[in-house]
Predict the structure.
Amino acid sequence: MREVAVAEGNGRAGGVAFELEGHVLEVMGLYDVPAPEGADLAMAMALTPRVVNTRGGLQGGLVATLVDLAAARAVALGLGDGESSATADLNIRYLSSVSVGPAVAAARVLRRGRNLTVVEVTVRDEGRDLVAAVATLSFSIVALRPGQPHPRDLSPRD
C-alpha cells in the first residue's frame, strides 16, 4: 500500500488517502484525518453522488462500514505480532443524516482485554458541525492466519 496526499476538493483536503488497487478503502474514497482530542484514530469519507441515498445523505450501510473500518484500525494499533481481530458486535445509533460532509469517524478504544477489545466511534457531519451517529463495537482478538497480512499494514500511518 502506498500513502497518497489528498488534494483540495470533495472535502478531502489535509487527509491521507489509501491506494490499495481496488480495496474497499480506496473504492469508498476513505482517508485519514487528524484524530480529535481523546480519539485514537479518525477516518473520513467525502459525499459524492455514488455514496448518497435518494434523500442526498450518506447511505446508512456505508456509515456502518466507515464505523467498522475506523474501529478495526484503532484496534489494530494495539495488536501484538501474530494477532488480528474480527468484529464481534456492532451497535450503531443514527442521530442525523450526513448530508453535507465529509463524514468523519473518530474511534476511541475503551478497553483492551486479552481476548476482546471494545471501541466507541462517533461520526460527525463536518459540514454541518453535528454528530450524525454513535456506535460501540467489540472485537475478538484472534491469531493471524498463515499468509495473512497484519492489520496494521492497512494503515498509511506506518
About this structure: The two ends are 11 Å apart (CA to CA). The CA atoms of residues 118 and 138 lie 4 Å apart. The chain has two helices and eight strands.
